[in-house]
Each structure stands twice: as structure tokens, then as C-alpha cells.
Amino acid sequence: MKRVDCVLMYEHVARELDVACAVKCLAKERHGVEVEIVHYPCGVVEALDRLRPRLVVMPVCYGAWEFYRPDYHAMYEWRDAIHLNLAWEQLLYPGNRDIKTPKGQFAMRHVLHHSWSRAFADYLRSVGVPDDHIVINGHLAYGLYSEPYRRSFDQREQLAPRFGLDPAKRWVLFAENYGWAFYNETLKETLISRKGMSRESVNELCGFSRESLKHALRWLIDLARSPELEIIIRPRPATLEEEFTVAVHEVAADLPLSVHVIKEGTVREWVLASDVVLSSWSTCLIEAALAGKPAYMIEPLPILPSLDVEWHRHAARIRTTEELVVACARLEPEVSKPLEAWARGSLLSTGDPISNLADMLAGLVHGKTPHPPIPTRESVTERGRFPVPAWMSFEYRRLLHRRKRKEFKVEDTYTLYQQREAVTPEEMERRCARWSAVLANGRAA
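Below the sequence we write its predicted C-alpha cells.
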């Protein structure tokens, strides 16, 4: 088994992998810290038998048994590591806040939580996370819109020929975020039975999202009548393309030629390349504002109170197709200034969060940065039916799960989407080499 400084897990490529690669390069160059990037969940099983990290960096952490699945419980092998939660989901709304709140002894007492803002740090304190287990560092992905990181993304000139877009036209990006519209019955039942959501709330969110998506697609089809526009619909990363295609065909059998459904790439390169950015309640509107683009929250139906959050008050709204046509014709970046000011003051107030994170990992690995105590056996062991000591239960389960991993098959357990998110070693090497070059060129400039 290889002893490594840090295992950094990513879950969603579009959301997290650029930051992970940049942090890996910076940590190695500045501090000699070796970071192994591993996909959660599909890459962890193999990594458990190959790596022994000093530091484990998680994409989210709501509890030991919310993050580490029991079928390959990573804590049995990596319990003696420091644990850092990057908490990639912090701009929560009332409908999902409870199910995405840290709970349990492991998450509350043995994890260092990365916070984007003072407001989220206050929220963590309010639910019982100790103050010295929280570090405020800003939004990692939003740091990618600054130099030199933004140089990594393909420009309009590269995207146009690849996807058949006319670079001379105005590009309108619609970043779809109606995730609840695609929740199947199994997932809905899980939210009700295991997460404690009411059936009424789940059904309301799903129904509202389905209807809103249909209205939004009709608006975009109407907008496509303008010959000056290229309309790019980017489905939510977690939505399967096949499912989204079915939803589109429920509204229109065939889309106009100027409407393109494109899931490739990250939202960042599309935001940087587009002239106007539209979405529902998605935080990509914040990213567009930081990129200096006109950004609009489209509201074909009045937003539910369970989806409404503070930052929406700073976003420009569109409530009719007429308003949409005018917004795409005028190109007024100043409409995003209030949202940009809020984002910089709330989510980017501590300098460069990516650079800071690389330094933080080195401090944790080298023992220079304080951290919560290493998890105890009791904090990560699910209670059994018999009253046995925690150490005995832990060691028994560790050996049991080590044997189970030898028979484990990813395709038997995880969705097609999760498998697609796992980047190959060759692709990971290419991405890291690209980021190394970007960072080197940034220093030279």
C-alpha cells in the first residue's frame, strides 16, 4: 500500500475537477505535497487497497454513513487520516437544507469544514459544528474566473467549430437546473423515508420543476425565431442526457436549428464564451455575474418559497417572453452588477481560494495547521444489533468489508451517470499537465 500525503475526492467533473487539478499542481510545486485525485464513488474501492493518505479531502460530508457508503466503507481503511470537507453544496435553499446539513459524531467532531462565507460558517456553528472546525476560504469554483485560472478554458473560437455554432451571432446560454424534474420514484422515496422530507414537499418540488422546465423550453424555442442568436441549452451535469432529451421532445419533436443541447465541457467555458446567460435558480448566474456577463433568472412560474434564497434578490429577473427577447437584444452587463457585488463581498472575500486551499492542504499534511481529532472507531462504526465494544465492531467490519471489496463491481451498484463522471488515469494526467502549463504561463505573465 502506498503512503501518500493527500487523497482529494471529486464527485462531479464539471463542478470540481478543474479546482482539484489546479490545487494538485500548486501543492506539489510550492510545498512538495503529493495529491492523489480519486473519483467518488467509482474510484474509491480501488484506492482503498492502493493508498494510505495522511489527509482525506471529501467533496461533501453530511455524516460518516451519508458520505462513505456501507458497501465499501472507506473509513475502515482511512480512519487514521485527517478529514477535510470541501462542502461543495453551500448555497442551500429551504427545500434541501435539512438533508445537506452535517449530522452525527464523525461530521461534527472529526471533520474540518471548508466554508465559502461567514454566513455559512455561522450556519455550521448554529447546528453544532465547533468554531475551530471551520475555515472560511471563499468559493473555489468562482476563483476560476480570475487570472490565471480562466486561461485554462476553451475560448469562443475553439468552441464554435467544435459544436457547429456561428461565432458572429449572439450566444445565449441557458444553464438548465431543474434537477427535481428528473427525480425518479426510488430517489423520491429515499428523500421521504431516509432524509425526512415530507411527501407533499417532494411532490411539489418535482411538479413545479417539471412545469417550469416545459415553460422555459417553450420560451427558448420562441426566442430562436431571431436569426441573430445561437441558443445553447446546457443540461444540469447530474441529469442524464437521455432523460433530458425525452423532456425536450415532450415540448417539441424537433428543435430549431439555432437551438443546441450541449452537455460537454464545464459551465465556466460556456459562460465565458456566451453573450447572455439565463438560468432558473442556478448559482451559475453568480458565475456569469463574476464573468461580467448579463445574467438573468428566468421565472415562467413564480418561484416556490422552498427554493427561494437570499442571493436571488440581487439577480435580474425575466418573467415573460417579451422581456426575454428584449434582454437578449440589448446586452446590458450592468444588470449583473448587484449580483457581482454581493458575490465578491460574500463568497470571495479572502483572496484567491484555490491558492489558499493548496497552502491549507500543505499545512494539514505537515502538521502546521490545527485540525480536529482523528476519528474514533465509535464515531465511524454503525451500531450493530449486539452490544459489543466499538473497537471490536470496527475491526470485524473492517475485515468483512475488505473481503467484500474483492467482489465489488461498480456497475452493479452505481448509476450510468456516476460511471461517466470517473475520469481515466490518462485523461487525469492530461488535465493536470494542462493546468501545470496554465499556472506556469500565469507566473511568467
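The chain has two domains: 2-138+349-416, 163-345.
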